[in-house]
Write a structure and sequence with these properties.
- By secondary structure, the chain is mostly beta strands.
- The chain contains two helices and six strands.
- A hairpin with a 2-residue loop joins strand 3 and strand 4.
- The radius of gyration is 12 Å and the shape is globular.
Length: about 110
């Protein structure tokens, strides 16, 4: 991992078109097959405005795997360090059937 500040938490998955709509908290369309994450509400900040995290790229790790994605949404129920991942992001790190992964991540 890189020397930037890194965070740890749970990685869960969501399908934008089914879970909250295809317009994310950053006010931009997000496709179900796009490499997008929803930032936990604690780090995202005020849920009704665009966060400083919007459109930043993050690198997410689980075990020996990693994947890059863009912050385009917020996850109200996620705790500090958690990220909600679209299916292709989650699949790059683990099996959708597990539902939850232990992750670490940092901005790139």
């Amino acid at each position: 991992m890189d020397k930037r500040e890194s965070f740890s938490g749970k990685g869960t998955w969501f399908i934008p078109s089914l879970h909250g709509g295809s317009m994310g908290a950053c006010w931009e369309y997000e496709a179900d097959d796009e490499y997008v994450v929803a930032m936990n509400s604690v780090q995202y900040g005020e849920m009704t405005t665009k966060s400083d995290w919007c459109f930043k790229k993050v690198r997410i790790y689980n075990g020996g795997k990693h994947v890059d994605a863009v912050v385009k949404d917020a996850c109200p129920e996620c705790k500090y360090g958690d990220l909600d991942l679209t299916p292709p992001v989650f699949k790059a790190l683990g099996d959708l059937d597990t539902g939850i992964l232990k992750i670490t991540w940092h901005e790139i």
